[in-house]
Design goal:
The chain has 225 residues and is an alpha+beta fold. Strands 2-1-3-4-5 form a five-stranded mixed sheet, with helices on both faces.
C-alpha cells in the first residue's frame, strides 16, 4: 500500500497555505481550498485525499454546496466543526450578493456562480430567488441533477419553488460539465419557455447563466433574453 501523500510532503513553496499567502485564493484548485478548510484528513487519508474524495463523490463544489450542515457533518473526515467552517464559507459567498441589486450587477453574479457552482461531473440546475428590489433571498443550488451532460428541467418546479420563497424575480443557472459555457439549442428553448411561464404567474426571469470552468455566459448580456 502506498503511503498517504500529505501536504507536508510537497516542497514548501508549493504547499496550498503558502501559495494562498503568495498568490491569493484564485491560484488554488477547489480541492486545495477545501483541504485548507478541512485542515487534516482522517486515518490513512490526508486532507488533500479527503477533499478530492468529497468533490468526486458529490460532483464538485456545487454538490457539496447542496448538502445540509448535518449531511456534511456525517461525511468521513468532515465532522461538525469542519462542516461549520464550510457552511460559513458558503454563507459568506451568498451574503456578498444579498445587499446588491443583481439586475444591475451581472458580473458579480457570474463571478459568484463560477466560484461556487463551476465544478461538477453532472449537469445541475439551480436558481437565485430575488425580492422586488432584485436582492437575493435564497440560493437554491440543486433543483435538478442530470446525467453527465444533460439536466432535464421543467419550468413548473422552478416557478413553484420561487413562489414558495416569496420571490418577485429569479436568476436561473446551470453548469456545463464539459467546461464550455456556450448555451445549447436546448438551453435557449428552455429559457424562452421559462420566461413566458414566469410572466404568466407574475415573476420576472432576470437572467439565465450557464456556468463552466472556462467562464460564464449570461443570456441577458448576450441579448438572448
Amino acid at each position: 500500500m502506498n503511503p498517504t501523500f500529505r501536504i507536508r510532503d510537497l516542497p514548501s513553496d508549493e504547499r496550498p497555505r503558502e501559495r494562498l499567502a503568495r498568490a491569493g485564493p484564485a491560484a488554488l484548485s477547489s480541492e486545495e481550498l477545501l483541504a485548507l478548510l478541512l485542515g487534516s484528513g482522517g486515518r490513512g487519508e490526508s486532507a488533500l485525499d479527503c477533499a478530492r474524495r468529497l468533490l468526486a463523490s458529490h460532483g464538485g463544489l456545487a454538490g457539496l454546496a447542496s448538502l445540509t450542515g448535518g449531511e456534511l457533518a456525517r461525511e468521513k473526515g468532515v465532522g461538525r466543526a469542519r462542516a461549520s467552517a464550510i457552511e460559513v464559507g458558503r454563507r459568506l459567498a451568498s451574503e456578498t450578493l444579498s445587499a446588491r441589486d443583481l439586475m444591475n450587477e451581472p458580473a458579480l453574479v457570474k463571478e459568484y456562480l463560477r466560484r461556487t457552482h463551476g465544478d461538477g461531473t453532472q449537469e445541475r440546475t439551480g436558481a437565485l430567488y430575488l425580492n422586488a428590489r432584485n436582492r437575493l433571498l435564497r440560493d437554491d443550488p440543486e433543483i435538478y441533477r442530470g446525467t453527465l451532460d444533460r439536466a432535464v428541467v421543467e419550468p413548473r418546479e422552478l416557478l413553484k419553488r420561487a413562489l414558495l420563497s416569496n420571490a418577485a424575480a429569479l436568476i436561473v443557472y446551470h453548469n456545463h460539465p464539459s467546461g464550455d459555457p456556450s448555451p445549447s439549442r436546448e438551453d435557449r428553448e428552455f429559457t424562452r419557455r421559462l420566461a413566458s411561464a414566469a410572466d404568466l404567474v407574475g415573476l420576472r426571469l432576470l437572467d439565465h447563466v450557464v456556468v463552466g470552468r472556462e467562464g460564464c455566459v449570461s443570456f441577458r448580456e448576450a441579448g438572448l433574453l
